[in-house]
Each structure stands twice: as C-alpha cells, then as structure tokens.
Amino acid sequence: MSYAVAALVDIDDFIASSQAQGQVWARRQLRRADRAVHAAAFGRPGVTCRPQPPEEWLVMLTGADPEALMSEATALAEEVRARIVRETAWTATVSLGVPRLGHEEAQREAEREARLANDYKLVLGGDRVISSEASAARGALSPPVRIEEELTRRVRAGDRNGAAGLLAGWVDRCASERDVDPGTLRNWLIGELLFVVDVVNRSRLPDGSTDWVEACARLPIEDIVTVGDIHERSYLHIWLRETLGRLMPPPARTDILALAETYLAEHYTDPGLRLSTVAEAVCASPFYISHLFAEERRTTFLRHLTGLRLRHARRLLTTTALPVDVIAARTGYPSAKALRGAFRRHVGCSPTEYRRAGLRP
Q1: Domains 3-118 and 252-361 in one fold
Q2: Burial state string for 178-211 with b = 16 or more CB within 10 A and e = fewer than 16
Q3: Where is the HTH araC/xylS-type domain (predicted)?
Q4: Which residues, other chains included, contact 195 with Cβ-Cβ below 8 Å and sequence gap of 6+?
Q5: 8 pLDDT band (50/70/90 cuts)?
Q6: What tens digit of pLDDT does each residue of 12-50 get?
Q7: Beta-strand pair 92-96/129-130
Q8: Does domain 3-118 have CATH number 2.80.10.50?
Q9: CATH of domain 252-361
Q10: What pairs with residue 92 in β-bridges?
Q11: pTM score, whole prediction
C-alpha cells in the first residue's frame, strides 16, 4: 500500500523580476533554483523531482505511512525554500497536497491538490508553505471597499496607469480580507473590468442599456479566462496594466490641457493649489502638464495661474472697496504682501496704486 504527496515549488514574482532584471539574469537564477530544488530532494527515498518550466518544480513523495509522508513533505518544503533564498535572488512558495492512496492516478490527484493549494498564493502571498487546509471553502460575499466612482473618473480622464494602479491596490486590499478565496477575488475583479468596459463603451441600445455585444469585444473571453490562471499578485498587476491599456483609448493632448485649464479656473482661489494638485486631478504627470502649457499655450503653468489670480484681483480692486488683504484671500494669495509682490512684478505698480489710477482690468 503506497501513498503519494505532491509539493509544488513556485518561484515568487518570477515574471515581474524577469521583466525588471532581464532574461539573461532570470535564466541564471533559474539554473541556481533548479540546483537548489534537486539538492533538497536528493537522497530522500521515494522522492522524485520534475521541472515544470519556466518557474515551477513538481516534487512527488511516496511512502506507506501517510502521516510520516506529510511530515517529510513539510520538512522538504521548508528546506527547498531555505535553499532558494540562500542560493538565488528569489523567494519561493511550496504548496502541498494531502496523501493519496494508489499509484499513477493517486499521483495525478496529488498534483491537482497541490495546484489547488498553490492557487491560494493569490490571496495569501508568497514566500511560504501552503497546505491543502488553506483551500477550505470561504464565504466572503462582497468586496470590503468600492472604487467605482474613482475608477470612473480615472477611466474617463484616460488615465490608464492610474486606473490600473487603483485596481491593483483594490485587489491587494480585498486579498487581505480574512474570508476571501481566489475564486471570489477573481469574480470581483472580472466585475470591475466589465464595469470599465461599460464606462469606456459609448454604444447603447435603443432603450439606453449597454450594448454588451459590442462592449465585450473590448474584453475578449480569452482575457477573462486568463485571470483564472494567475496566482501571483505581482503578475496580476502587470496583467491589469496591459489589459487596461487595450480597453481604454489614449487621452487626447487637448483634452488633458482643457481639463487642466478648467480645474485651474475653478480652483485658482485656493492658496495651496500646486502643479502636482492639478496633475493629480486630471490624471496626468506634472511634467506632461507643464509640457502642454509650453507647447500649446506658449506659457508656463505658473504664469497661467498668476494670470487668473491677478485678473480677479484687478476686477475686485476696480469694482469694490474691499481691503487689499481681503482681496488677496479671495484670489488665492496667502497674504496682502504676496499679492503686492505679484502686482509689482506683473502689473508694474501696487494694488493701491492700481485702484487709485482707476485702471480697468
């Protein structure tokens, strides 16, 4: 009578680190990891090791005592993890099934259970041993937070990276919930992706409802199926950026500039308004906003903001009797001194002199 237990060794963050460091580096690390896994398995009776390219190894343990076999599998898993940390630049997750009685069919079942356990890496994170007990059914029914309002704003602004970052952070937050299993997390994510499709898609049926036939052409079924194969959150983040890049049309330069100018016109009276504030509001980088003002308007962000503030100040000086300090507060300057300085630099006189001269804005 023989039992089988599978241990699936999975390198953590393989795709993300390979993209960051390059394929040559990744191949060198894989060779080291392969030696580490085989060294941990070497000399153990009833243990075989089979690579599962590019970044997994299936270690199969067989024996007559299921409890002893499970203890040996756990010890082997910890040794593999320690060797990989010591001999490579990576960490690893080792997922264990439960002992199965039989021969070939038992080994196939043992591998299936180890892969089911490894699926929980999506919610538990890596650098650990995951046992089959982790894959017990859980019962979370709804996400802990909702992001649709902010997601809509970023999608409509054409901010692909911002939308992907928001979704990635939301996935991490949901994964930290105690009762979330991988399937539930993926279902929530697919729901958010379909929401993005609905926001992006402008085609509507005669009754005003979404034309889902056309909308789903933006998110092919192959993409949805792919989510089911992802068990690494770092790769899921990469996949989100790529998928949203396909779903969302790039924003027009003039649209970004118009959004920035509109935001400035509505908020220039705020003394704390900065380029970074506007950039965040319109989902673009500060550098890009500055570039657009220089190229499209032949001015700078600061000159544009100063022009709005001084135009309002001149109007108040000539149409009201408000003190200069009150006018400064109403036009975005922190003090009367700051307003006087701006007036002398850009108008050529003080606010009081401007008022006495009766000049028009």
Answers
A1: no
A2: eebbbebbbebbeebbbebbebbbeeeeeeeebe
A3: 258-357
A4: 148, 151
A5: very high
A6: 999 999 999 999 999 999 999 999 999 999 999 999 999
A7: parallel
A8: no
A9: 1.10.10.60
A10: 11
A11: 0.68
